[in-house]
Design a protein that fits this description.
By secondary structure, this protein is mostly helical. It has one domain. A two-stranded antiparallel sheet has the order 1-2. α5 runs parallel beside α9. The longest helix has 40 residues. Belongs to the very long-chain fatty acids dehydratase HACD family. It catalyses: (3R)-hydroxyhexadecanoyl-CoA = (2E)-hexadecenoyl-CoA + H2O; a very-long-chain (3R)-3-hydroxyacyl-CoA = a very-long-chain (2E)-enoyl-CoA + H2O. It comes from Formicarius rufipectus.
Length: 222
């Protein structure tokens, strides 16, 4: 149990450091350069963002092997949403990388993750603060739907470029008469994105009710 908690604490600490660096960097750049900083957000912090999102795949493994008791499907959906939008949509289209929507996405993701990993680190040490617990399970209620809308907008912005360049579209040679037109795949994924959002929001409310109750009890005991 100690080894497991120590490993999870180190993991949360690494993610906290990465997302805190991104979040702080974005704020400082905006205060220094103003709107000019928004266009090159991906170029300045995209590498660290990609590393953090790749590292987050471990959270699915944590649930599968039983060291994390979170629900698998909601976490799987949230992680895959980010992976698809970041690596498939944004990273593959240089024209999209300079759009302001990338900055909005990164801001929402990192604001949520800084709070979440702070809460996780303290909970590994059995330290619970009611304001932080409330913030962790309440902030995502307005911000997660906003992030889904931002993801959908980023996908819509990218569609003309996927149509023009034919990225990821596949046409199999004879004797096969089968082709995959990737813009259609993205349009279908938009539907999946909003269906998943409804499921995840329901799970968020369930977790909020359960954890805020636990947080109140432990706060009173302390």
């Amino acid at each position: 149990s100690f080894t497991k908690n120590m490993y999870l604490f180190v993991y949360d600490l690494m993610q906290f450091c990465g997302h805190s660096w991104i979040f702080t960097n974005m704020i400082i750049r905006f205060m220094t350069f103003g709107k000019d900083s928004l266009a090159d957000t991906f170029y300045s912090i995209g590498l660290v963002m990609r590393l953090c999102q790749l590292l987050s795949v471990l959270e699915i493994l944590h649930i599968l092997i039983g060291i994390d008791k979170s629900c698998l499907l909601p976490r799987f959906l949230q992680i895959t949403e980010r992976i698809i939008v970041l690596f498939v949509v944004i990273n593959s289209q240089e024209e999209v990388q300079g759009k302001y929507i990338v900055c909005v996405l990164f801001f929402l993701w990192n604001l949520l993750d800084v709070v979440r990993y702070t809460y996780n680190m303290l909970s590994r040490m059995e330290i619970y603060y009611l304001p932080l617990t409330w913030l962790n399970f309440s902030l995502c209620i307005p911000l997660y739907p906003l992030s889904v809308l931002a993801k959908a907008y980023a996908i819509c912005v990218s569609l003309p470029y996927f149509e023009s360049f034919g990225t990821y579209s596949i046409k199999l040679p004879f004797p096969f008469t089968f082709s995959i037109y990737f813009p259609y795949v993205l349009k279908m994924y938009l539907l999946v994105l909003f269906i998943g959002m409804c499921f995840i929001i329901q799970n968020i409310f369930s977790e909020r009710k359960a954890h805020l109750g636990i947080g109140n009890i432990k706060n009173k005991r302390s």
